[in-house]
Amino acid sequence: MSEPGLVPTRDVSPEEITRYRSDGYLVLRDVVPAAKITAFRDAVREVVARHAEPRPPAPLRDTYAKAFIQVFNAWAFDPRVRELVFDPGLADLAARLMGVPALRLFCDEILYKEPGAGHTPWHQDLSACPFKPNTGITLWIPLCEVSAEMGTMFFARGSHEAGELGPYDISDDTDRDLGAFVREQKLACVDTGPMRPGDLSFHDGWLVHGANENRTETLREVIVLHYFPDGQRVALPTNPTRERLLGAVAPHLQPGDLADCELWPRVPR
């Protein structure tokens, strides 16, 4: 194992690994010194300023567009952000939780919730991934203090056990259908609570989850890393997002090929 970068001493215990696999999520507090995380804020802000796509006026946005400002693959735009995204200590924690020897990065996402931004609908992250088998883990990294009023995440505990619940994009439809599933199955809905720079939240890619609206006057600044196990293969896309992402990221890959390309790199650990 390489030198663990941002996480020089913190490990996950067997009990935490068991809890992650049972519940589908794990929130770890004070894993990284806060100053080491906030040091990346300016670089992330510059990427957002340069690369966030224009959005329609607020009254014309759909639920998804009202939820956040979003930039994918910030690591490709700025070497400082790349340092964070490819930190081996973060990848090592994710690999230990999944119980796999090696990970690839599916993408990073900058997710800024502006003051007054709406809720993030119920969804499953792996609905975007065109892989077989399709497994993965998401790491949510706050770059600022995130109070309960700023848009913290909430999880349907244990919902990852159901696997894929619908091949659809995050939308009002996922909010309706997955919300109905959570209610019908009487699953506990658990909020992360306030989070600080240095805290990390991991969740299984099939976990049904969402985020609250930002009810404050402060911008919520978060970067999210999506990992998948090395060795997965490309599957035939079954929804528009999978088709679009495969065409944009790896148009040369066909169903059955190893998910191996420049924009899905192995992450050191």
UniProtKB/TrEMBL annotation:
It comes from the Bacteria. Keywords: Dioxygenase, Oxidoreductase. One of its GO terms (molecular function) is dioxygenase activity. The keyword Ribonucleoprotein does not apply. This is Phytanoyl-CoA dioxygenase family protein. It comes from Polyangium mundeleinium. The lineage of its organism: Bacteria, Pseudomonadati, Myxococcota, Polyangia, Polyangiales.
